[in-house]
Design a protein that fits this description.
The chain is mainly α. The protein has one domain. Helix content is 85%, strand content 0%. 38% of the residues are buried. The model has no long low-confidence stretch (mean pLDDT 93).
Length: 273
């Protein structure tokens, strides 16, 4: 019993001693893992639907996934054994999926990667609470927006990008894909509005922590996301003889995810300063 109590005390002391820079670095690594998995999913779906070029990108992203998991493992002391063990479990699941992905039905592969991403985001939420649950009001709010709102926005965009680019590569939208695409459109709209609302509120309360012109950047970003949604609705969903360039559509989605990550980085910088 004494050994257990001493271990718990050591973990508490370690957690309290974690610097702001180390906390942000850990969250950033989780973010990188999620983004690389999203790209792997989309690239795999593209490849399985006839885009041979997409295979090269898949192997590149798989390498990034492996590096992210290794980095999380090296940062073990930031979060402790329980969360570290959960990431290790996800790594094993990822390795198994990567071995099978190119042999699966395209939509089965897509769903499997999506399940892993959802687990990563949920675990990222636990990390956020572990690192900032006892922090200031700003730290709690900013870190929550980063992991629980912005990363969910990137996931909606990632699914809209991945499934949509696969549809474009094939040249037609199958009946089973229609419902998924429509759901992703709703998901992106919801999460985009949540992020914008939260970022506006943070900027209003802690304006000195954010760059000038943030409101304008958010307005422009919303316009770009809505344009992407319109493209999916008018050129992909329920369409045959599709003439959308798969690679360009994928890149456009990637750029929007990059835009969301810029808002993530504004918060991570503010947490370190």
């Amino acid at each position: 019993m004494k050994k257990v109590i001493m271990l718990l005390l050591m973990l508490v002391v370690t957690a309290s001693a974690v610097s702001d820079a180390k906390k942000v670095r850990y969250l950033d690594t989780v973010k990188d893992l999620i983004v690389a998995t999203q790209k792997t999913r989309g690239g795999t779906y593209n490849f399985l639907n006839g885009s041979e070029f997409a295979q090269f990108g898949v192997f590149e992203q798989r390498s990034k996934i492996k590096s992210s998991f290794k980095s999380l493992n090296r940062q073990f002391n930031v979060v402790g054994p329980k969360i570290d063990g959960q990431f290790d479990k996800l790594y094993k699941q990822m390795k198994s999926l990567n071995k099978l992905a190119f042999q699966l039905d395209p939509l089965t592969s897509f769903k499997a990667y999506s399940s892993l991403v959802n687990k990563m985001i949920s675990l990222g939420g636990k990390v956020q609470i572990e690192l900032y649950g006892d922090g200031s009001k700003f730290e709690k709010s900013a870190s929550d927006v980063m992991m629980n709102q912005i990363m969910r926005l990137t996931e909606g965009l990632g699914k809209l990008r991945g499934l949509g680019s696969g549809i474009a590569a094939r040249g037609e939208c199958e009946d089973e894909e229609v419902e998924y695409m429509e759901g992703y459109v709703e998901e992106v709209n919801k999460n985009m509005n949540n992020v914008i609302k939260s970022m506006v509120a943070l900027n209003k309360s802690y304006g000195d922590k954010y760059p000038a012109g943030l409101t304008k950047k958010l307005t422009t970003y919303k316009k770009d996301v809505l344009a992407y949604i319109k493209l999916a609705e008018t050129k992909l969903i329920e369409k045959d003889n599709i003439q959308v360039d798969s690679n360009k559509y994928f890149k456009q989605g990637t750029d929007l995810i990059g835009g969301a990550i810029k808002f993530y980085k504004m918060n991570s910088k503010a947490l370190k300063d």
